Amino acid sequence: MKFFVDTADTAEIKSLSSSGLLDGVTTNPSLIAKSGRKFVEVIDEICDIVPGPVSAEVAATDYDGMMREAHVLRAIAKNVAIKVPLTPDGLRACRTLRATGTMVNVTLCFSASQALLAAKAGASFISPFVGRLDDIGESGIGLIADICQIYKAYGFATEVLVASIRNLGHVEESAKLGAHVATLPPAVLRSMFNHPLTDKGLAAFLADWAATGQTIA
Ligand code: G3P
């Protein structure tokens, strides 16, 4: 499973990428707004930090506008993935962009039918939002299971990019289902390292080691 980080905070991205575990980055207009920085400048900086796909979302909602914006965004770096909303115009833009070899992430997916349309439009990634489905009393992970089953049945090349992740349960269940990518808020990615028994075990090993009075190097 690939790990992307879902943030436009370049300090966080630098710090997390030093672990060598980061395969890409996703941003959205809300995350760009939160950064308080200029969109193109932030994407440019992120693309320099992480060699994998960096999603940059269009703000236009019509096909021509999306294509104009995509033209600007894909010129930033080779690893930019244009993020388009799951609408008729978004999927039309997806098809055109894919025909010219541009990576496309289709976002705001909340149903298996939508995911099927995105795969048929040749999307590189489909982004189902698990947390937001849970918020309205539906099963986000249930949707991931449905999409993985459908994509496998037809051999679609579109990668399932699990988005709107809120906890480790979302990550682990998505991995069990074979989802290709999880995009994680930095705090969730950091929490993957933690287990109280790891802390307790390490403290005991360090105390026992200190008692030997030895050094290794
Ligand atoms: O980037 C899309 C998605 O990950 C947003 O998550 O937490 O705003 O529902 P959230």
DSSP summary, beta strand count: 8
Helices and strands, in order, run as EHEHHEHEHEHEHHEHEHH
Number of helices: 11
Termini separation comes to 36 Å
CATH fold category name: TIM Barrel
What is the secondary structure topology, with strand pairs?
Elements: E1 2-6, H1 10-17, E2 24-26, H2 29-35, H3 39-49, E3 54-57, H4 63-74, E4 80-85, H5 88-99, E5 103-109, H6 112-120, E6 125-128, H7 130-135, H8 140-154, E7 159-162, H9 168-176, E8 181-184, H10 186-191, H11 196-212
Parallel strand pairs: 1-2, 1-8, 2-3, 3-4, 4-5, 5-6, 6-7, 7-8
Helix pairs in contact: 1-3, 4-5, 6-8
This protein binds SN-glycerol-3-phosphate.
Describe this structure in words.
The chain contains 11 helices and 8 strands. By secondary structure, it is α/β, with parallel strands linked by helices. The chain has one domain: Alpha-Beta Barrel (TIM Barrel), CATH 3.20.20. The protein has an 8-stranded parallel barrel, surrounded by 6 helices. Helix 5 (88-99) links the parallel strand 4 (80-85) and strand 5 (103-109). The protein binds SN-glycerol-3-phosphate (G3P).
Write a concise keyword list for the protein shown above.
TIM Barrel, globular, 52% helix, binds SN-glycerol-3-phosphate, alpha/beta, 217 residues, 11 helices, 17% strand, eight-stranded parallel barrel
Short description:
The protein is of the alpha/beta class. Helix content is 52%, strand content 17%. The protein has an eight-stranded parallel barrel with strand order 1-2-3-4-5-6-7-8, surrounded by six helices.
